[in-house]
Amino acid sequence: MRVLGVDPGLTRCGVGVVEGVAGRPLTMLGVGVVRTPADADLGHRLVALERGLEQWLDEHRPEYVAVERVFSQHNVRTVMGTAQASAVALLCASRRGIPVALHTPSEVKAAVTGSGRADKAQVGAMVTRLLRLAAPPKPADAADALALAICHIWRAPAQNRLQQAVALHTAHATKGRTA
Question: What is its EC number (predicted)?
Fold first, then answer.
């Protein structure tokens, strides 16, 4: 499974590609940050972000895109920028028919460190260890993007089984009502 992780942000949008399957060693295929100038017009920043993400999709051809789910913060301006960047990532993937999964920050932290309250340094250290890297990816947005991809690889099989079970239950329940 090849996953592009996206840590959305308007100024720095972390991106990382990881390949592998749950229970086996994972491989980092690329990591970086798509940057936009803070003083540019919002529309131009969103277009620049789209172009950057499209380049990553073209180069790495992921099967899935994992995006950090936007959560409420105290700074509304930060939340808006994060939500807008997240929407661009969703749009780019959906336009290509690539499934998108949203993962909460605590879900990602728990997946890679064992604790949903881990700090950025702990996440970076575990990403470095799990991907057998020489040093933690910089900036933290890049490490977070890799953590999102790892989280998705490890959690996707369980999520797929759960979705199949719900669909099967729904089908049986519906069949019982129509009979």
Answer: 3.1.21.10
Instruction: Write the pLDDT tens digit of every residue in 11-40.
Output: 999 999 999 999 999 999 999 999 999 999
pTM value?
Answer: 0.88
What is the Cα–Cα distance from 152 to 21, expressed in whole angstroms?
Answer: 10
Residue 117's CATH number: 3.30.420.10
* Best CA proximity match to 6, nearest among 89, 76, 73: 89
* Among 19, 58, 141, 144, the one annotated catalytic: 141
Structural domain of 70 = 2-178
DSSP 97: T
Torsion angle of C-alpha atoms 25, 30, 33, 34, degrees rounded to 10: -130
Q: Name the strand (E) or helix (H) holding 33.
A: strand 27-35
**Active site includes 141?**
yes
